[in-house]
Amino acid sequence: MTEELLSLPVPSVPAADRGVAWLRANVVRFSNGAEHERRRALTTKLLENVRATTLEELAQALNLPEALDDIAKIAPCYQPHVPITAEADAAAERLAGDHDEETAARIGLLVQAWAATNAFAEHLRTGNPGPPVPITRRATQDGVIEVSLEAHPFGHGPHACPGRALATKIAKNMAFRAMHFQDEPLVLPNAWDYTSAAALHAAGFTAIGTTSLGVAAAHGIPDGMGLAGKQAIALAALLKDLPCPVTVDLESGFGLDPAELVAGLDAAGVNLEDGRPHGLASPEEQALLISRVKERAPGVFLNARIDTHWQGVAIEETEARAKAYVDAGADGIFVPGLTEPRDIEKLANLAPLNVLAQQRTPKELGNLGVKRISTGSLLFRAALQHTVATARAVRDGGVPEAFSYAEVQALI
């Protein structure tokens, strides 16, 4: 029945020559028939080559670089059944220019991106499974009815969202960033293949990371040598459609141009480390790398991993490197091996701090200022141990525990 209702026309809107009413009358969202086809083609063309990672980048790509403040005023009045405020009308007029159809399409795209993408990002952050737009409206012989979109996120049929992939990417970026500014630390499990990631998301984790050791070892490659780039990138491509933000461990870039590498991934975050196969990069070298990545992909959360603890370097150098990386644009810092409370508190004042899971609880680490707790290679190593233990149980007459065949199939 929902399919039939969604094929009905959207309610018509009256013609108008100014303000929000003009915008409504000239966008694809509230059009039918030939007008809808023409305006949808125009909207699709506007989105054709857009590679934005933030709403700000989308606004720039649509030639409305300073528009988001006005868009925020228009969005609450955009729907035809909602009253229009004078503030919204004034904002629409500031953006309208010659009041042509293409300008309306640009404004309409930003309005819908601002409203639906913000809502979707909040759903992702909280683990809410609901769609960003819960209902749509259709015209019937009996008047206007509301149709639930629970089974059809981003619309359906003729009015399916033409920017779904772009909106999803931006929303994941927004949600993942917000997860680093919550009261409780983000607990980030690290997966090594699609199914481990899907299982972790199904278990209630709102974001997933990858583990360089797990990815490399699963392919018979040693970790930390920059040799598993092909495998890490392939996994990132598999995980891009997972219904939650994903952050990818890129070691130090696998010998590739890190800026181009990050920009080419559909990932909400990346880990980039200053460790190299034979020592540490200089702080200046790593800071330059970070600044280039952030310039190329500003919406991707860059977690700057500092490998000084692995190298036995004093906390003073760790702190100096952290400051340099944050100044270069890093969104967060990650110091594997960091456990001393005073050191944790000191570094947590610089940027969202990521530490590895340890004996302290998430609440205890949160009280020290930690914003993200990752499992690193722990889950992969535990899976290996459980695999061997299960095989031994079969050999020795024990009763192994495992997901059922159907449960694994359901994850795919």
Mean pLDDT: 92
pLDDT under 50 segments (min length 5)?
A: none
Helix content: 40-55%
Number of domains: 2
Annotated CATH homologous superfamily of the largest domain: Phosphoenolpyruvate-binding domains
CA-to-CA gap between the ends? 27 Å
Q: Describe the largest sheet.
A: 9 strands, parallel
Strand coverage percent: 5-15%
State the name of the first-level CATH class of the largest domain: Alpha Beta
Entry keywords:
412 residues; alpha/beta; Cytochrome p450; TIM Barrel; 2 domains; 9-stranded parallel β-sheet; 13 strands
Protein architecture, described:
The chain is an alpha/beta fold and 412 residues long. The protein folds into 2 domains: 2-170, Cytochrome P450 (Cytochrome p450, Orthogonal Bundle); 182-385, Phosphoenolpyruvate-binding domains (TIM Barrel, Alpha-Beta Barrel), CATH 3.20.20. 47% of the residues lie in helices and 12% in strands. The protein has 18 helices and 13 strands. The strands form 3 sheets. A 9-stranded parallel β-sheet has the order 3-13-12-11-10-7-6-5-4. Strand 4 (190-191), helix 9 and strand 5 (208-210) form a beta-alpha-beta unit. The model has no long low-confidence stretch (mean pLDDT 92).
Q: Quick summary of this structure?
A:
It contains 18 helices and 13 strands. It has helices at residues 2-6, 19-26, 33-47, 55-61, 68-74, 86-96, 101-126, 164-178, 194-202, 212-218, 229-239, 258-264, 283-296, 315-327, 341-348, 362-367, 378-396, 405-411; strands spanning 135-140, 143-148, 186-188, 190-191, 208-210, 246-249, 269-273, 275-276, 279-280, 301-305, 332-334, 353-356, 370-374.
